[in-house]
Amino acid sequence: MSEATQGAESVVGVTMAAREDETGITLRHSGLPGDELRQQHTQGWTWILSALEQGLASRRSASSSD
User: Fold this and answer.
1) Cα separation of 36 and 47, whole Å?
2) Cα(58)–Cα(64) distance, rounded to whole angstroms?
3) Rg of the chain in Å (alpha carbons)
4) For residues 32 and 45, is the Cβ–Cβ distance under 8 A?
5) Best label site of 7, 24, 58, 66, fewest CB within 10 Å?
6) How far is residue 6 from each of residues 32, 33, 52, 63, measured CA to CA in Å?
């Protein structure tokens, strides 16, 4: 439980699947109370996954130029 869920218990599930030369990630966050918190968490998870993708891409570029 977290302050970000107003103390409500929620569940985060992550699934990864091979997609050609990449890995697809599906993230599902359930149990969030209210539309506003769902929207905030959607924005937060979108930002986090985008940052992860960018970080991994830059590492891939760095390692391929070595």
Assistant:
1) 17
2) 10
3) 15
4) no
5) 66
6) 9, 8, 26, 42
pTM score above 0.90: no
Q: Are strands 22-30 and 11-19 parallel, antiparallel or unpaired?
A: antiparallel
pLDDT in tens for each of the 66 residues of the chain? Answer: 788 888 889 999 999 999 998 899 999 999 999 999 999 999 999 999 999 999 998 988 888 776
Residue 9: enclosing H or E segment and its boundaries? none
Torsional class of 30: left (φ above 0), alpha (ψ -120 to 50), beta (otherwise) = beta
- Cβ atoms of 29 and 14 within 8 Å: the answer is no
Quick one: DSSP state of residue 2? -
- Residue 30 Cα to chain centre, angstroms: 13
